[in-house]
Design goal:
single chain; 115 residues; mainly alpha; elongated
Length: 115
């Protein structure tokens, strides 16, 4: 493995570790976690099961970050162009899936009127 490839691996991990760390922090959080930057997370009273809500959000971010690393590693093994294509798909598709999943979690765990 060349020095250039090792440098690329290090950069990939440096870029993706904050996303994975966000997932771990959200997974372990005792307070409801947020999704959108700049938007306040829900209040405790608004969520029916805080632990499940946080765990699922945390796992979502961990998978998202690990997906980038997997795409990159596959690219190193197979072909750099494939890595680029997979990373673009992971970036764009992954964030849309994360948004849909976040909205699903809100439908499941937000208290309904009268609860």
């Amino acid at each position: 493995m060349t020095g250039e490839k090792i440098f690329e691996i290090i950069i990939c991990f440096i870029c993706m570790m904050p996303i994975i760390i966000i997932g771990i922090v959200q997974y372990r959080s005792k307070k409801p976690v947020g999704f959108w930057s700049g938007k306040e997370p829900p209040k405790k009273e608004q969520i029916t099961d805080i632990a499940a809500y946080n765990h699922k959000h945390g796992i979502m971010w961990i998978i998202y970050g690990a997906g980038f690393i997997l795409c990159f590693m596959l690219g190193l093994i197979i072909d750099e162009k494939i890595a680029l294509i997979l990373s673009i798909i992971e970036c764009i598709g992954g964030i849309f899936i994360a948004i849909l999943y976040h909205n699903k979690l809100n439908r499941i765990y937000y208290r309904k009127d009268g609860d």
